[in-house]
Amino acid sequence: MNLAAKMQLSLMLLPFLTMAQTYELKPLVTDAKTSMRGLSVVNKEVIWVSGSKGYVGKSVNGGKTWEWIQPKGFETLDFRDIHAFDAKKAIIVNAGSPAYILSTVDGGKTWRENYKNTDSAIFLDGMDFWDKENGMIFGDPIHQKMQLLKTDDGGLTWQNITDNLTKELKVGEAGFAASGTTIKTSSNGKVWIATGGSVSNIYFSPNYGKTWKIYPCPIVQGESSTGVFSLDFYDANNGIVVGGNYLKDKDNGNNVLYTKNGGKSWRKAEKPVFGYRSGVTYVTNDICVATGTSGTDV
């Protein structure tokens, strides 16, 4: 388990905030044989993770103990994102080609292949759900078109809605699957997707991906290793993005921004994070946690 995943699990899953504003980091896993990227917290007890070598992890007691699963036939895949609904049902997506979307409804005992794409250029980056039935996955562009998949039956089938986004991405612009969190869904069909590389943009749809608007994001960009690596929204207006340059993970110039108008414009935070960050989440309206390979910030 890599440091970023340890920090992210520790901070997101434990009651670490106190009235005195002290913070405790407690590793939940130290002996896993996988590098974890995906994390889905259902509640205080049920936690799912996913990662390299085809591994999926599940805890039903708040992280005290873990069950490790390798879906049969998919042991070599890197599952960069996972979305769990309860202790029984979860959906996983891998990075790279061929691209697979798998689901389980029996706690990981068996897995169903719901989607497969053998295009050599396919690379799925992230997934999120509005509710138990409706969800979206996005991927790197093919022929400059961001790949967009949508489900309305809880992930059993996926429709390609790529053509709904008519604007082509710039050459060198793509998403990052660092933690599966460069996509965020919200109430009433809202969804935000962040890109990086040669240019960084925020793609916003107010209607389940039917139509899209594009907002420039002035985070560090211009190289294939730079851009937004994670975003979160507290509500329809207040959001945050983090990222930077993963090849220079201690650089902290212009790699955390916030918005108060739904992503239309972005401002630098008064206090920067202390390096490249690949995961961010709101704890409250005023408190966010960001984590990456060089540390964690609150």
Automatic annotation (TrEMBL):
Q: Which organism is it from?
A: Pedobacter xixiisoli
Endoplasmic reticulum keyword on record: no
CDD domains on file: Sialidase_non-viral (cd15482)
Give the source's domain of life in one word: Bacteria
For this entry, the protein name equals: Uncharacterized protein
What keywords were assigned to this record?
Signal
- Where would one find the signal peptide in this protein? 1-20
Xref: InterPro entries: Sialidase_sf (IPR036278), WD40/YVTN_repeat-like_dom_sf (IPR015943)
Q: Does the keyword Lyase apply?
A: no
